[in-house]
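Hi! If you just cloned this repository, the fastest way to understand the data is to look at a raw example. We've pasted two of them here, unedited. The first protein comes first, obviously.
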Amino acid sequence: MFNHTLFKPPDIFEERVEDIKESGLEETLAKLLLQVELGFALTEYLQIDDEPVTVVCEILSKTLIRHPRLQNLSSESKRAIARAYLQTQKGH
C-alpha cells in the first residue's frame, strides 16, 4: 500500500500504461486495468476492502454512502478519493 494519497501520480500512471502496452495490451485496456487497480488500492487505503467491488463506483460517483468507515473521513482520505476520481476521468 502506498504511503501517500496520490496512489500513483499521473506521470507514473502513464509510464505504467506504456509498460503494459509493451506486453501487448492496447492502451484503452491498459488504462482500464490501472483504473481498476487504483480502485482496489483506494478501498484498501480507506479500509473498506472487505466491501463488494461496487463500492468503488459508489465512492467515485460521489454517492452518499452510509458506511461507518466513510462517515468521518480525514482530509487525506478525502484527497485520495478526489485524486482517484480525477485519474479515472482522464481520457473520457
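Ok, and the second one:
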Amino acid sequence: MRAKFALLLLLTAVVSCQKSLFSGTPRWMRMQDRHAYFSEDGDEEKPEKEEEAEAPAAIYVSGLRFPGGVAWRNGDYTGARLVLWKDGEEVLDLPAGHYPEPDRHRIRDGHLWWDDSDGSTTFVYRDGEEMLHYPGDEILRGLLVVDGHIHTLGQRAGSGGFSYRVDGEEVFSHPSAQVLGSFDDREWEGGALMRYGDEVCYCFTLPVRLGDDISAEYHVMKGEQLLKRFPAGTAEKLFDLRVLDGSIYRSQLSGLKSGSLTLFKDDVGQSLGIKDGVTVHLCRLVPFQTGMLVKGYSTQSGTKSYTYWLRGGNGPMQEWDSPLAVADLYVDNPDRSAIYLEGGRVQEIRDGKKNLTITPGRYLLYTPACTALVDGSLYAALSDANGNSHLVLQDGQFQSYNFNGCLTGIRIE
C-alpha cells in the first residue's frame, strides 16, 4: 500500500507547505462584496422549478474493508475491498486492486473512481468498471470528465515526470517535472486539473540550477500549449499556482519577509496583510465566487499556537488562533466549525455553536476527503485508530460503521 497509507492526515502536514489543509464549498454570500478578491444579480422572478421539491442531498461515504482478522495496520492487505455507502446503505463492494491506498479513490457524482497500477500499466476504474488503461506506473493527481472524455494527470514515482492524457492517450508529458496540486486540494473538482472552457489546464515545476543553488521554474499549461512560464527566481517562494476563468493566480512570497505574502491575478498583485515576524504555511488558492482567496496558517517562534486564516486582497475573511492543529478550514463557516487534532488524532469537534462529545485521541482522519462543511453542517468520516468502531458525523449526530478497515472519504451530493 506504499508508505503513503501511513496516515494521510491533513495536519500532520503542519510542517509542510505543500499539503492542502482545508476544504469547503463557497456559500458565505452575505460577505461576498467585502471579501472577494477581484470583484449578478439574479432574476427576481422565482424559477418554475421552485414549485418542485428538490431531492435531498445524498451522503456518500467510502472506505477500505478487510476480512476479519487481517492485520492491515501492520501491512497485511489481504482481501482488501473498496466500499461505498449511500445514506448509510452499502451500494458498492469491490476488490481494491494492487495498491489499496486511501487517497487513490474518490467520490464524484455518486460514483467511486480510483486508479491502480500493476507496476507496468495504470488503470482507471469507475464503480468497478475499467474506464481506461495505459502503459506506465502512475498515481493520478488530477481527473476530470469533460464532454464525455476522461482527462488524467498522472505522476510517476520519484523523478520520473508526469503525463497528461485524454482517454488514456498521451497529450503532453515531461520526464522530470513535478505536478503542482493533487486531490488533497478539495476545492478543485479535478484535483490538479482545472477546466478552462472546454479545455483543461494544469501546472508543473522543474528544478533549475542557479549558480550553486537549485531553484524552480513553473509552467502553466492548457492541454499541450504553454500558457505561462515563471522563470526560476521569480519569487522567494511560490506556494500555489492555478487557472480560473482565464486568469492565472498565484500565492507567493515576493521578498524575504513573511509580510510579503502576495496574491497575484495575472500580473496584478495584492498584499495579504500578513505581519512580519511570523512564518506562513500552505497558502493554497481557494476559488471564491468571482475571485480567489488564500487559505493557510501562521506560526511564530517561541509560541505553540497556530493562527488559521482565509485571506483576500481586503484582509482576513476568517482568522483565529488555536493551540491545536485544525484539520480543515471552510469558506462557508461563520460559526467556525472545526476538527482539532493533536499528534494526528482528533481531540475536539466543534459543529456550529456546539462542541460534540468524542473520546479524545481515539479517531483519525485518513484523508483530506474525510471532512466537509455543507449548508452550515459539518460532516466527517472518523476511523477508529485501534479498533473497528468507526463514526460518521452527519446532522450533528454520530452514525456507527463497524468493520475491519478504515473510512476514507465523505461527500454530499
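That's it. A detail worth noticing about the second one: The longest strand covers residues 199-210.
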